[in-house]
Design brief:
- The chain is an alpha+beta fold.
- It has one domain: 2-Layer Sandwich (Peptide Methionine Sulfoxide Reductase, Chain A).
- It contains 7 helices and 8 strands.
- The strands form 2 sheets. It has a 6-stranded mixed beta sheet. A two-stranded antiparallel sheet has the order 4-5.
- The protein is globular and about 40 Å long.
- The N terminus is likely disordered.
């Protein structure tokens, strides 16, 4: 899944990738930390026993919105852009105020914001429960407190921002189900934060994986997630991403 070319610079071979990795600073996420395994494998977990009831979405029956936070938003956005039934996935901030909704402010870890992704989806094609299934299995590790991989701080916490009481009910039930089933080696630390506004992130954060597939951080931390999405959820995987800047 490694792309040898990048529109913004010369080709990266693996040897060159390893030689520059120690000095590369990611725009938006923490400095690169190398993993000998090239990313974590998805955890195969049971599907939610409780799902959203039909007709309880926040808008029309053909469109609904969900907001998830699970570490750097580059990878979370990319995962949902490849899920069938998703019509949009936008990187942003949630949990804090509009005034502090920027990368510069949120990266201090003092604003209450988490790097988040607003997912717009067609509930006739993919349910909220299925999006949660992908969130806990592929998009991130829900047992890591205030961190994901090389990224640390409350801005990288695992959080669900439900759009309504029904989403909150389904999310709470699923967390309880997974913990009761000991689906992970440790307890889930994902929080459910209600009544929070989502704020869109800066343009340079949007579609980051699609625009920079050879960026070292992307290659090591996020590209493997797309392979795991295809492997674990073949019926939900769509090869062509739904991009903020238009379908590629």
């Amino acid at each position: 899944m490694f792309n040898q070319s990048d529109e913004s610079g010369p080709a990266f071979g693996w040897l060159r990738l390893l030689s520059v990795a120690a000095t590369v600073i990611a725009i938006g996420c923490a400095p690169l930390a190398l993993s000998s395994e090239g990313g974590e494998r998805a955890r195969v977990i049971p599907a939610p026993a409780v799902d959203e009831k039909a007709g309880t979405g926040t808008s029309a029956a053909t469109s609904e919105v969900a907001v998830f936070a699970g570490g750097c938003f580059w990878g979370v956005q990319a995962v949902y852009q490849h899920v069938k039934g998703v019509t949009g996935a936008v990187s942003g901030y949630a949990g804090g105020s509009q005034r502090s909704a920027s990368y510069e402010a949120s990266s201090t870890g003092t604003t209450g914001h988490a790097e988040s992704v607003e997912v717009t989806f067609d509930p006739r094609q993919v349910t909220y429960g299925q999006l949660l299934h992908v969130f806990f299995s592929v998009a991130h590790d829900p047992t890591q407190l205030n961190r994901q991989g090389p990224d640390t701080g409350t801005q990288y916490r695992s959080t669900i921002f439900p759009a309504n009481a029904e989403q909150a009910r389904v999310a709470k039930a699923y967390i309880e189900q997974l913990n009761a089933a000991h689906a992970f080696d440790a307890s889930i630390v994902t929080t459910i934060e209600t009544d929070r506004t989502f704020y869109r992130a800066e343009d340079y954060h949007q579609d980051f994986l699609a625009r920079h597939p050879s960026h070292p951080y992307i290659v090591i931390n996020d590209m493997p997630k797309l392979g795991e999405l295809k492997r674990v959820f073949p019926a939900l995987y769509q090869p062509t991403p739904v991009l903020v800047g238009g379908t590629r």
